[in-house]
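Archive entry. Fields below.
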Amino acid sequence: MAEVLLKVKNLSTLFRTEGGVVKAVDNISFEVRAGETFALVGESGCGKSVTALSIMRLIPTPPGEITSGTVEFDGIDLLKLRNREMRAIRGSKIGMIFQEPMSSLNPVLTIQSQLAEPLKIHMKLSSGAANDRAEELVNMVGIPDARARLQQYPHELSGGQRQRIMIAMAMSCAPRLLIADEATTALDVTIQAQILDLMQDVTEQSGTSLLIITHNLGIVARYADRVAVMYAGKLREVSDASDMYAEPQHPYTVGLLRSVPRLDSDKGAPLTPIAGEIPDLTDLPDGCAFNPRCLWAVERCFTDDPELEEISTGKRVACFEHASVSLHD
Amino acid sequence: MSVPPAASGQTSPGAPEDRATPVSSGGATPILETRDLKVYFPVKRGLIIQRTVGVVKAVDGVDIQIMPGETLGLVGESGSGKTTLGRAILRLSDASGGSIRYEGEDVLALRGREMRQLKQKIAMVFQDPYGSLNPRMTVGNIVAEPMLVHKIFDDRSKIRDRVMELFDTVGLNRSMATRYPHEFSGGQRQRIGIARALASGPSLLICDEPVSALDVSIQAQIISLFDRLKVEQKLTYLFIAHDLSVVRHVSDTVAVMYLGKVVEQGDADAIYRDPQHPYTQALLSAVPIPDPEVEGKRARVVLKGDMPSPLNPPKGCVFNTRCPIAEDQCFVDIPLPRTLPDGRQVACHVVSRGIDSGSIAAPDARINGRPLESTFGLLGTEPSSQRDRPIISRGRLAMLVGVVLLGVWIAMYLGNFGLGAEKEHSIVPSAVIESRIDEFIDGFDCIREDAVVQLDLSNASYARVLYLKDNPSKPGSYLPPRVEYRYHYAEGTIEAIPEVTDFCY
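PREDICTED_STRUCTURE:
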């Protein structure tokens, strides 16, 4: 087993809002190993983006606050670093790509100056060397005619090309971890496939770990080695990707898999939606937060909240009834 | 065949006459039919005196048919014109040419009251459940409004009863009728939008991306609702979506659009099982399937580049800039839809030629749609140093090699390397290639031997080396390459050409 690169332990992040305190991330623990692709999957509001922002220490405070836990990256607890030390890690040891590339790029600066900036700051390159490296990076992400592109502004590029520039920027300082938060959600499927393949290729080549945050179970199946399923601020199942799809052990995972229409299924194959709505985070039910929608809920689920427990090697599930939960019944 | 004068560009010589008979399901009359429908938007410049500087052909000569009780899934990427087509049917966008017939009636000729009557029979469900409901009306009034507009009931209490019925139908609690849209979640709002669409008692529902803004678990609820309504209310759907998995679930027939044109349409099962148009193939293979085991074995085609600007579409086939199998003709002539033996229509020169030569029944006879005469193949072995994804390592490997010399392409392809393997593998030098041709050719059942014998590398300056793997879904055919390398004979060096990785698999 490869060494652990990122170790998130008992991390909790809450937001104090007018409607009450929202535990966006509630006591979660997981590890990302060196060189692997780890996926954090869940629906909107489940806390997956807040997890990424907490790792990067980008939670706006107030209203947000990381209240407990440690985020060990390469043996250092990021939450204990001074702001200046954290800045040296962001964009250098850890790269991040966001959903909307247009709002992550500065519209009034050329691609070249934006790509060269982290190189000058983190790698202490001279302007000339940084510009040369920027051209190499643009070539690496497969944008033709790199030299001309470098002089252009973000609005002159297509959505897919902007996301390629974001990848180039995130990879420019050879990070050990790349976080992609819904990086392809706004793109068309053919472009999505291009970008994800590119991300996988560049991280594979450099041995960078990839943390994919997505709601798309197909993307997880295609690219991830391991996966964590999140619901209402908590991790519900952590496992090898192939295991999770073959034998999901949490009712929510089962529900998700049953509710996604598949390209390769027969027409009219039954689709079993999860009943009910995603709960309001300021007003979660007692016990397990999934209990109002759960097909396997027993009495205990309405009073006690199950912890994430290791049920077999490499597989952790937070459900009292996990033994009877099955995709096929 | 009727290609109106407005049709721009050249059309294929000797174009067949089957344009006049789009996908038909026996002798029944379609509920909705468009013929050569065009929606053009002028692009204007100038502040006061505006002049037209160009035209965006959002929908350019589209023929579709929907049979009563069926669902036509209209798919394509953003900018393909699928939404404009849906809007044109309800005359929310003005058609620039062609015809739309609803139950035989010419929709474009309808005026005033007749048009209002039509809008009673065709309703629309929109994508954005937040933007399509008036925030200052109670949801009960929102659902009642179409009945007031169409004067369906003269008695208010009957309207109220009907609203309550509709709430039951779409699975909303009756007590919610007095609330305002902001009090509802996305899924509930979409239910309200559906109730409103059903209020006038339509027989055709145009659904424009009705589930794309919803979470997975909620999406399934709404799709199931559509499934149920189709049976209960005997509805016909035009289901516009970019999510091919959703379209797979709901559709009887499918039309695939690209840059204003339908490139392939017909029976949904046939298209999903065996897509013929290279764009359909790429589109389907781009969608990941939520099952790592299936994903690992899948054939994939990744397209190069972006969709061109609709302001300046390419000449000839609109897909030629990204097409992995484009030929000279594709850059000159616009392909017309041709009917395949299974009744489906495909607008592609390469496929058309397959129909003409009768080989389309056995598409395996081509490599990536290329005729065999221009392709050469060698069987390769899996390099042991390869560090690759399971998708690739499971496939049988094949090698094909190509050389460009004075316009003669000699392609050599060899079994699949991932990008990660780039540094480690070595490419067979030309001399070895020549001596190995005979060795490799046994067991390579797809390549004509006489073609390989003509391979002459002595005058070549470089070899184009592409790596291919077997297409597991079509034995005997191959997936497009993932990486291109050039082997320069003089220097004896190998160069990787990064752009090719784009369309490569």
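CURATOR_NOTE: Chain B has a mean pLDDT of 71.
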